[in-house]
Amino acid sequence: MKTCFIALSLFAASLVSAQIAATTPAPAPRPHRQPNANFEQNFEQRLSARLGLNATQQNALHTARMEAETQMQGMNTQRRTLHTALITAIKAGNTDQIDQVSQQMATLQQQEAAIRSKASAKIYATLSADQKTKLGDRVDMLGGPGGFGPGFGPGPGGPMRGRRPAPPAGAPAPQN
């Protein structure tokens, strides 16, 4: 009697769950989007606002960054290939291959840093003296996301890490 009751309960529970599953619509597929495009555009807008770039400077900023992006397009594929080769060499214990792949990865990183730095130099050349003063030594922020150095802002690794931002001109310094 107990087994019959348990079997009936399980059968009823499976019918209910099947009915719920059949009436619940499948989630709509997420549209394919290019997150980099929005992030790049937002970065350019924030940098333009922060430095007060005019239309010509904004155009130069966009052009320099897109040229750099075009030059680096194939590098992501290369990086993935090298990463896979490095993992294979590690698993095989092949130290000579590890050295070789590591050197290739370092060369690729050097090329990326040079491309980003050259783009930053093009952008920096368009800035006025006041904008260069406002930027200070933080030229790394011209490199943008994935730039050649730490990003701007108080985040981890940023140039302000462990420091408070300078008070506005004429404001008293904070007391600790």
Describe this structure in words.
With 176 residues, the chain is an all-alpha fold. The chain is 64% helix and 0% strand. The chain is built from 6 helices and no strands. The chain has helices at 2-23, 35-51, 55-71, 75-92, 95-126, 129-135. Helix 3 packs antiparallel against helix 5 (95-126) and helix 4 (75-92) runs antiparallel to helix 5 (95-126). The longest helix is centred in the middle third of the chain and has 32 residues, at 95-126. The radius of gyration is 27 Å and the shape is flat. The N and C termini lie far apart (78 Å). Mean pLDDT is 75; it is low at 147-165.
The portion of residues forming beta strands comes to under 5%
Global geometry: flat
Helix content: 55-70%
Main beta sheet, described?
none
Chain-averaged pLDDT = 75
Number of strands: 0
C-alpha Rg, in Å?
27 Å
Distance between the termini: 78 Å
Structural class: mainly alpha
Number of helices: 6
Which stretches are low in confidence, meaning pLDDT under 50 for 5 or more residues running?
Answer: 147-165
Which series of helices and strands comes N to C?
HHHHHH
Protein traits:
mainly alpha; 0% strand; 64% helix; single chain; 176 residues
Brief characterization of the structure:
This protein has six helices and no strands. The chain has 176 residues and is mainly α.
Architecture blueprint of SSEs:
Elements: H1 2-23, H2 35-51, H3 55-71, H4 75-92, H5 95-126, H6 129-135
Helix pairs in contact: 3-5, 4-5
